[in-house]
Design brief:
Blueprint lengths: L7 H7 L4 H6 L4 H13 L1 H16 L6 E6 L2 H11 L19 H4 L4 E7 L4 H10 L9 E4 L13 E4 L6 E8 L6 E9 H14 L7 H67 L5 H25 L18 H15 L15
Length: about 350
Amino acid sequence: MAIKKLELEEFLETNNISADEWNSSDIEWQTLKEIGIDHRSKIEQRKETAELFARIIQRCSKVHSVRWRVKDPEHLMEKIVRKTMEGSDSFNSDYIGITKDNYHEIITDLVGVRALHLFKDDCFEIDNYLCGIWNTKDKPTYYVRDGDETKEDLEQFEVKQHPAGYRSLHYVFESQPLNQVVYTEVQVRTIFEEGWSEIDHKIRYPNFSDNQQVSYFLRIFNRLAGSADEMGSFVKELVNELESTAKALEAVKKENAAFKKENDKNIADIDRLFTELDSSNGKNQTQAKLVKDLKAQVEKLKAQTQSSTDKSFRIRHHTGSGKTATSPLLKFIEEYEASQAKPQKSTTKAKVIKKT
């Protein structure tokens, strides 16, 4: 029905507002109708604003999906009634004196956008993205449920416990596509929170169901949604850790293959030097050079062996005494050098001089 033809009694019945509640509200029926009519006339304009916000927000890589809506005129009128009911839990003094000329400055969710994401910590990248594009009317609100742990640095937010248990980030952004400032409320939450909040909203609003059994099961549902978010974050971290470990294993595997190749080359060089040493036939100068080269190769091999033990997956070349496998070679070289340093017996016979 057109708001112009809407009667007060029908409005109260449709929106579950009692006569006492209406009488306690500080709003005249004519003023309320004027607000509803004005909002109805600007719905298409406000839809364009919502669509613009949705398109820009969807470009953020951490945003899974975006939903938007423009507030229904009758729901707007019902909200104003409840916000002007003095003494009620929903009373807000900012709504006193509201008219068709200023309601768009007081009510900040005429245009509403929801940005949904998969993992809890995605919200911080989304926050950077949003605040880099639009100016906020007030400090963003970080809603948590009673009992939630908030370990992150949340100085940029006003942290509040939501009475209904909602977990989400709320922003009010200013824009002026035409000749009037438009406030757009953007809510950022996980897909699991969206599922719970949609069911909760469907049951509680606009009839404000206060059935204790229903509320009890909705609280359980809320905790399950929170647990699902925690599980999602855990699985994400687990996958990242497994991928990191797999990369580390692959790097070690390649490094070990390169080490083996170099190790085989060094052993081949040592074998070659031993062969040359055996064939030197007592030429001390040549032997000394070969021993020096051999010792250098062994030291290189020992250094590589030691380096490999510092890796996560070590290739050990140890004997029972804790010495490396190259130690016998070094011992042999040291003994050989010591033997070469001893005075050599002359092989030249002395000339015998006969005494006269």
